[in-house]
Specification:
TadE-like_dom; three-stranded antiparallel sheet; alpha+beta; rod-shaped; Pilus assembly protein
Length: 153
Amino acid sequence: MSGLLRKLGSFRENEAGSVVIETAIVVPVLAVMAFGSFEASRIVSRHNELQVAVAEAAAIVLASTPDEQSEIDTVEQVIETSTGLPAGKVRLELRYRCNSDASLVTDITLCPTGAVISEFIHINIWDTYDPIWKDFGIGDTVSYDIRRRVQIS
């Protein structure tokens, strides 16, 4: 029995492998934190890129003031090309405000006769981002939906 206790006591005094064990515990945690920070920064960066794209779209709309659907379609294509977004991720819609109503309508005939009508272009840019941790069953796709309204008259 005393031989067994002596052997256990010698293990307690031997600390040669403690650094390896501590490293094996700490390194994966630090790696996951670094990787998660990197992915989170990419998510924020993509959101910023789309915000810049919407600002660029607003500038293009103000410069061209499209008021017909063909002009709006052309501006959509210009925005998609200049921002690098895939086709179908940019939508511009003509909207109207009747007098000082808080809501906007899509059909100008809904405004009463003699109303002061203001024209707006409603800009909508959307996209998705799949973080790498989704491949491991953690989290889901990040969806972006950025909207801006620009008055053109």
